[in-house]
Design goal:
By secondary structure, this protein is mainly α. The chain has helices at about 1-30, 35-45. The chain is elongated and about 65 Å long.
Length: about 60
């Protein structure tokens, strides 16, 4: 029974590592660069009007 638990732990570790590598490859792929650049510019592209305490722009 103990070997079964160890096999399960190894399988979960390998699946987690594969998922991690998949996310890293997805994030660093050249096809996504323009989308990530656009998302990174969102805070800088907002208008610079102050927000009062009610949340209205004045």
């Amino acid at each position: 029974m103990e070997w079964n638990m160890n096999l399960m732990r190894e399988a979960v570790t390998l699946v987690s590592f594969a998922a991690f590598l998949g996310i890293v490859i997805w994030a660093w792929s050249g096809r996504r660069k323009s989308q990530f650049d656009a998302a990174a510019r969102i805070p800088l592209d907002e208008d610079d009007q102050p927000v009062n305490l009610r949340g209205d722009r004045s």
